[in-house]
Design goal:
8 strands; about 45% helix; binds 2'-deoxycytidine-5'-monophosphate; about 240 residues; alpha/beta; Rossmann fold
Length: about 240
């Protein structure tokens, strides 16, 4: 399955809503969003993978964030790959699957510096919008409800304290080392600060977003809150 083109719904089928999920690092956007998409038979796109893959490629090639002319063309080498359920959760750089590599700590540390480059963001806007055109999609990121899909049918902002998010990230990495967990927390805070204070498309909840705080929630509880928010709009006949 290729490039930024998850399967579209069959002709005549209800198209489904466009759902934006934004929030800081490790707030659960990707895992929760993918699970909700599975249950609703929606497509899913984790837009963070685009920025991570560009950052990974830039690091591999020694391209600094300030080298805009070197950086922007790298976006064209990145391809999102859909699984059989239409969830864009894998990413390739050229022909190489780099899904695992883009989660590495060195990418964590560098990605915000690349993601704040306005020219790179601009190059990625049309690709993200094109994916949502057919409806029936959940798109997760930082600026989906504010910039990429301001007309989304449902906007959700998932939040959690930095400590809770660092704990989840450490769990994902199977880290039990206290010093490493502390480092994860420090990195998260740094990334939050860069993502929220950048000039172009900063991390922010849209004024019409449903804000869901996931501190102390189980995964299932958060999935249910997101499903409820979507069903409310579906029930009101929202969507296209
Ligand atoms: O969600 P994540 O941690 O995988 O995102 C990685 C980086 O990409 C993060 O620093 C913010 C940036 N990003 C962004 O600026 N806009 C998006 N829509 C998605 C991610």
């Amino acid at each position: 399955m290729t490039i930024d083109s998850a399967p579209t719904p069959p002709t005549g089928a209800p198209r489904g809503l466009v759902v934006a999920i934004d929030g800081p690092s490790s707030s659960g956007k990707s895992t929760v969003g993918a699970e909700v998409a599975r249950r609703l038979h929606y497509r899913f796109c984790d837009t963070g993978l685009l920025y991570r893959a560009v950052a990974w490629l830039a690091l591999a090639r020694g391209v600094a964030p300030a080298d805009v002319a070197g950086l922007v063309p790298l976006a064209a080498e990145i391809t999102l790959i859909a699984d059989s359920r239409g969830r864009l959760r894998h990413v390739q750089a050229g022909a190489r699957d780099v899904t695992a590599e883009v989660e590495r700590p060195e990418v964590d540390r560098a990605v915000s510096g690349y993601a704040k480059v306005p020219q790179l963001r601009a190059a990625l806007v049309p690709r993200q919008r094109a994916l949502a055109r057919e409806g029936g999609i959940i798109m997760a990121g930082r600026d989906i409800g504010t910039v990429i899909l301001p007309d989304a049918d449902v906007k959700i902002y998932l939040n959690a304290s930095a400590e809770e998010r660092a704990r989840r990230r450490a769990e994902q990495r199977r880290t039990i080392d206290a010093q490493e967990t502390e480092q994860i927390l420090e990195d998260l805070r740094r990334r939050d600060s860069i993502d929220s204070s950048r000039e172009t498309a900063p991390l922010r909840s849209a004024p019409d977003a449903v804000i869901i705080s996931t501190d102390g929630n189980s995964f299932e509880e958060t999935v249910k809150s997101v499903l409820d928010a979507i069903r409310k709009v579906e029930g009101a006949g929202g969507g296209r």
